[in-house]
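Please fill in the sequence for the structure shown.

STRUCTURE ENCODING:
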């Protein structure tokens, strides 16, 4: 490709925790080299500082600072850091991590010493193309959100209510639909940030840490936020937090990755108890084959998103299916492998529900950029009679054979 192209590689949640962190990405390193911009979500603090908060159920998101070598081994340019675990050990560990990343040449978005810093875009200029990155989090414990006078992450609060499917007076105990609505103040602030970033840069990429973990289902507010951000000027939406893959959407020709999934996730044995409690709410088991990965087995299925920019516009987007191997390393899959087919089939199911088409291209899948999609995902997700139907399917034995 000539110099007027810019290539971006985006992956989901990363938490490295091993003796030799640089080995974590041995199998995918060449795919990262393809990109000029390489971005991930950092799901842990890299620090020896801090004391875990007493309200943290799963205190396993602090790892040794040496694990920054996992990120530098694939030349990560930028991490989104507005995550729901990144203040588990307080501001000391939070700031220590940001300093460590900066010292290793890695930019940080979505976090800072105050709200202005947390909402401020990071602008990377490559081949004379300016790309602004923003990051917001909808999963907020008390004290995690940055304020004008306190450090933290960039907040985008969401309000939750429950709407009975039938008349509760005729039938007490009727099932309810989960309604989620973005907080007006944070929602407006996010839109303002996107508009201002668009004035400063040629392209705007917005990362949202959002959704419901461990399920393929979208929460109602996810497409609402994504579509509104695109209307405000965003060119690409990257979603993290659910720990598993979710559908890929196209709106006005712009790509929306609702969840890139776990890309590399290693935790200590202490994490099993906390994660098992979360999973018990949904009837899901942890992955018995990988003690270092105490998430459900379907969370081992992941992907790399590859974006091509030309003449300051995104001209294509593709995905490469990836799977955690027995060493918890993300391993790219060839088109003739059974797991490749399994991931492709799952993505096709999720994407076809909202009218997105994926076309095979060797080992990768090309996302079709139709500007007029037959389904408005905002309407589709609101009209579902059951809020999280995939949770029921995932809890059945067939999905764990």
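FILLED IN BY: designer on duty
SEQUENCE:
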């Amino acid at each position: 490709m000539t110099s007027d192209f810019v290539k971006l590689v985006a992956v989901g949640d990363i938490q490295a925790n091993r003796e030799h962190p640089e080995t974590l990405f041995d199998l995918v390193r060449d795919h990262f080299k393809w990109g000029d911009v390489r971005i991930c979500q950092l799901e842990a603090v890299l620090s020896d500082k801090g004391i875990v908060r007493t309200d943290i159920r799963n205190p396993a998101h602090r790892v040794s600072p040496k694990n920054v070598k996992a990120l530098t081994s694939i030349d990560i340019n930028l991490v989104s850091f507005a995550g729901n675990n990144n203040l588990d050990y307080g501001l000391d560990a939070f700031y220590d991590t940001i300093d460590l990343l900066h010292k290793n040449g890695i930019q940080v978005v979505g976090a800072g010493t105050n709200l202005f810093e947390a909402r401020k875009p990071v602008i990377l200029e490559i081949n004379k193309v300016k790309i602004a990155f923003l990051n917001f989090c909808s999963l907020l414990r008390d004290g995690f959100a940055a304020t004008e006078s306190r450090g933290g992450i960039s907040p985008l609060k969401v309000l939750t209510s429950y709407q009975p499917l039938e008349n509760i007076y005729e039938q007490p105990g009727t099932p309810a639909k989960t309604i989620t609505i973005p907080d007006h103040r944070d929602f407006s602030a996010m839109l303002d940030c996107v508009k201002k970033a668009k004035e400063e840069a040629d392209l705007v990429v917005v990362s949202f840490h959002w959704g419901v973990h461990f399920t393929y289902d979208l929460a109602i507010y996810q497409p609402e936020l994504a579509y509104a951000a695109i209307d405000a000027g965003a060119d690409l939406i990257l979603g993290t937090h659910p720990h598993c893959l979710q559908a890929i959407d196209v709106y006005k020709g712009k790509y929306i990755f609702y969840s890139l999934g776990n890309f590399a996730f290693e935790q200590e044995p202490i994490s099993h108890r906390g994660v098992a409690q979360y999973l018990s709410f949904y009837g899901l088991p942890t992955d018995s084959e990988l003690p270092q990965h105490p998430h459900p087995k379907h969370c081992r299925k992941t992907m790399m998103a590859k974006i091509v920019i030309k003449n300051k516009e995104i001209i294509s987007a593709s995905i490469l299916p990836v799977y955690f191997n027995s060493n918890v390393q993300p391993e790219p899959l060839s088109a003739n492998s059974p797991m490749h087919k399994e991931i492709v089939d799952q993505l096709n199911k999720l994407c076809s529900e909202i009218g997105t088409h994926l076309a095979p291209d060797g080992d990768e899948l090309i996302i079709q950029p139709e500007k007029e999609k037959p389904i408005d995902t905002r309407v589709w997700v609101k009209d579902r009679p059951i809020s999280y139907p995939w949770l029921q399917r995932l809890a059945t034995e067939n999905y764990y054979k």
